[in-house]
Amino acid sequence: MSQKIAALTARVNQKATSDAARWAYEGSVAFADLETAALVDTANDTPHVHRFRLGNGLRVLVLVDRSAPIMSYFTWFRVGSRHEKPGKTGLAHLFEHLMFNESEGVEAGEFDRKLEENGAESNAATWLDWTYYYESLPKDRFGLAVKLESNRMAKLVLREPQIVSEKEVVANERRMRVDDDVEGIANEVLYKTAFTKHPYHWPTIGWMVDIENFTPEDCVAFYKTYYAPNNATIVIAGDVKEQDVLEKLRDAYGAIPAAVMPEEDTTPEPVQLESREVILRKPTASEKLLVGFHGPALGDADHAALSLLNEVLFGGRASRMYRELVTTREVCTEIRGWVSTFRDPGLYEMYFTARPGVDRAGVLTLADEQLARVCADVVTDEELERAKARLELGLVQSLETASGKAEQIGFYDTVLGDPAAAFRRLEAYRRVTAGEMRTAARRYFKLDARTIIHVLPEIAPGTEQAAQ
User: Fold this and answer.
1) Are 303 and 431 within 8 A, CB to CB?
2) CB of 133 within 8 A of CB of 126?
3) All structural domains of the chain
4) Three-class SS of 291-315
5) pLDDT tens digits, 407-440
6) What are the φ and ψ backbone dihedral angles of 278, each rounded to 5 degrees?
């Protein structure tokens, strides 16, 4: 397989017009878990992700999937809110909006219109560690995606009217999703309180004062720095031919110059040595709790064990927290937990909504009892197997479509540097023992070093109520 792709790459390079437009083949990786690969790889039936790099630094990952006559085209930029600076927060998210605006030769609104006319869907996302843009479309419209994406990577229009318009859109989005949303503002305060030095401290959408004060010069500098081929990875999954991919991308991207990438200047988060608590008064009918324990990075060895533990505690109606707080005690209407999937250590978030009239203190006491149990004793074999089955099912479901495959490949490549890391995690889940889960619980569930956001109903005007 590798020899065939290497020979194909050499043929394509015969027509390269410059070093920047020449491809380097960087090998292939099996897109399957070890058990599946061992069974079918001898017949060359295992799907592979082929890795290429253009002379200007653009990386391309290709997974051929002929199960349907469609393809998905993701462009991942290695820039998120972590790459911003205080006073300029929200720039990465603003660009998610600006990139759908005007570029040279493509008027505002034309990008989406052309894709819709050709049966495509498109969207984008920005988070702490990354930004991506994607199109899913019929395979014979592949060239359209290449043309539109390469154009906006190199020729985005950043004049003041466009920037002012999108700033207002983002400001309204912040008002709706954060300032006027109880859960949104509580989650923002959770990270603002739990992180004091690391850039995970500020929200991806940015602080409102920063959004209002962005200038065209800020946007141009950000675009020239981060929206460059040597900071991007294109992931293509679907019914495509490798040679066609290499030729089209070479012709569209080969002339785009690389940028000088700045060294990231990130301050690691100091160890939290005390409990931090914040009380928010918001328009809510019942009390809520957001609890954050500092947790591992996605690539840390403990992440798989803690993810399985989260399934035991919060995964569905059979989970311990649900049975105790929702079914048996009837003190909560909603609960959930999540282990952050960040490049650097993040949070293990826990969320509880108390029933109306129920005091959050009682909820926290019951939740802490469940945390103490998993620190003291190993989970049962049945719980462990159920947790592993739920996580494996979630992975399989995420890979049902070409878009899902491309997203998983791009996410794990961007965060962990391994396009097939989803299967490495599946293998890691299978190896985790109950004892390792208990060790992880003892390492991270430190009640005297967590962050708690108490969300309480607003005090009615003209009444007196002591702060609880």
Assistant:
1) no
2) no
3) 2-253 (3.30.830.10), 276-457 (3.30.830.10)
4) EEEECCCCCCCHHHHHHHHHHHHHC
5) 999 999 999 999 999 999 999 999 999 999 999 9
6) -135, 140
